[in-house]
């Protein structure tokens, strides 16, 4: 693209060096912050349970998930910009849907227990699949062992 614009070949290293010379560096775009609603839910949970004992917290299972890219396209959009210009409109780029291979993993932890790492290699994790592969065989059994004081906490954005 640069070669067509200036009429001669130029290496990626030369382009990068010139951008650096002018104070521009590749930066990974800012991650999505917790929504106001999610922050409120977490704060409310903390306030409600501020006086809990270690034994009380033993009844809580925290669950979370992460996606890992198996190909270089990891949805990290890098933009060339000056330091301190993160949110300027000219530094925001369109992001296309991820089309590469990835895996989704999920695990739950509590004070005295952790679930096995669940790896989803294919397909979407729908509500039905989550119920059939996580809730029914893992969480429901653990909840039954803990008893009526069991709490499942899934941290969302």
TrEMBL record:
Transmembrane segments: 139-156
UniProt keywords, alphabetically: Membrane, Transmembrane, Transmembrane helix
InterPro entries per the UniProt record, alphabetical: RNaseH_sf (IPR036397)
Protein name: Transposase Tc1-like domain-containing protein
Gene Ontology molecular function: any one: nucleic acid binding
Lineage, uppermost ranks: Eukaryota, Metazoa, Ecdysozoa, Arthropoda, Chelicerata
Gene3D superfamilies: Ribonuclease H-like superfamily/Ribonuclease H
């Amino acid at each position: 693209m640069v070669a067509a614009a200036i009429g001669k070949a130029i290496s990626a290293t030369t382009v990068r060096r010139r951008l650096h010379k002018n104070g521009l560096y590749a930066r990974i775009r800012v991650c999505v912050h917790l929504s106001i609603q999610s922050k409120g839910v977490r704060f409310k949970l903390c306030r409600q349970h501020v006086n809990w004992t270690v034994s009380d917290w033993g009844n809580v299972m925290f669950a979370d998930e992460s996606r890992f890219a198996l190909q270089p396209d990891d949805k990290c959009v890098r933009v060339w910009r000056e330091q301190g210009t993160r949110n300027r409109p000219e530094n925001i780029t369109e992001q296309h849907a991820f089309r590469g291979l990835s895996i989704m993993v999920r695990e739950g932890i509590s004070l005295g227990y952790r679930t096995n790492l669940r790896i989803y290699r294919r397909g979407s994790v729908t509500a039905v699949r989550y119920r059939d592969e996580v809730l029914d065989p893992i969480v429901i059994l653990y909840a039954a062992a803990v008893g009526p004081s069991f709490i499942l906490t899934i941290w969302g954005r």
